[in-house]
Amino acid sequence: DSGVTQTPKHLITATGQRVTLRCSPRSGDLSVYWYQQSLDQGLQFLIQYYNGEERAKGNILERFSAQQFPDLHSELNLSSLELGDSALYFCASSVYPEPLYEQYFGPGTRLTVT
Amino acid sequence: GESVGLHLPTLSVQEGDNSIINCAYSNSASDYFIWYKQESGKGPQFIIDIRSNMDKRQGQRVTVLLNKTVKHLSLQIAATQPGDSAVYFCAENSNDYKLSFGAGTTVTVRA
For labelling, which of A16, A26, A41, A46 has a CA lying 20 to 30 Å from the CA of A61? Predict the structure, then answer.
């Protein structure tokens, strides 16, 4: 158990819908990272927050957004969902803002868009 | 033991043998590398990391080798066990704030 929690574990929704994925980092970790893992794209970095502020952006679509709250939990919002958005979404956390230290991954949320 | 000369998506290893998983990275400016293990249905789990000022680092049953000349990273697992069956990813910090992950190698341990 990494100490990172993600909810829900599974999510099934229809195209065009909007969903919110939630992540609670390890106690004491200020950085939260979101990743998407699909069969054809592998593990792709989406976005990072550090202490409530956006720190870095990766391959995140404009239909997706995220935020980190004062209690350091983070939410990833996916809207206008398409079939291709079906994937595993992982949250990871670490103490420091730079990805130069170990990131601890949560168990993931499996999103299925039908 | 078995080794993979170039990156291959799968590796089958006899239990008790040593495994070598290879990874080519893309950015010569990367200064931090990590190996992660992902078991079925779980998130990636940290195995070992290495910084660019080192060429070798050892952990418990694992060794990471870094060859900056050819931009190559390898993970050696000693005395491979059934619990080592998983997908292994290498990752590099391709710039200050992003980790880029490799395609992954699926390791299957034969009893």
Answer: A26
Strand partners, B74: B22, B65
In DSSP notation, chain A reads --S-EEE-SEEEE-TT--EEEEEEPPTT--EEEEEEEETTTEEEEEEEEETTEEEEE-S--TTEEEEE-TTS-EEEEE-S--GGG-EEEEEEEESSSSSSSPPEE---EEEEE-
Å between B83 CA and nearest CA of chain A = 16
- Does A103 lie at the interface with B, CB-CB under 8 angstroms? yes
Per residue in A87-107, pLDDT (tens digit) is: 999 999 998 877 677 889 999
- Smallest CA–CA distance from B94 into chain A, residue: A99
Of the candidates B49, B96, B103, which has its C-beta nearest A42's C-beta? B103
* Residues of B with Cβ-Cβ distance to A108 under 8 angstroms: 42-43
Helices (H), B1-111: none
Average pLDDT, whole number, for chain A?
A: 94
Number of other residues whose CB lies within 10 A of the CB of residue A2: 18
Q: Are strands A104-105 and B2-3 parallel, antiparallel or unpaired?
A: unpaired
Query: Is A99 touching B (CB cutoff 8 A)?
Result: yes
pLDDT, tens digit, for every residue of B38-93? 999 899 999 999 999 999 999 999 999 999 999 999 999 999 999 999 999 999 88
Q: Answer whether A2 touches B (CB < 8 Å).
A: yes
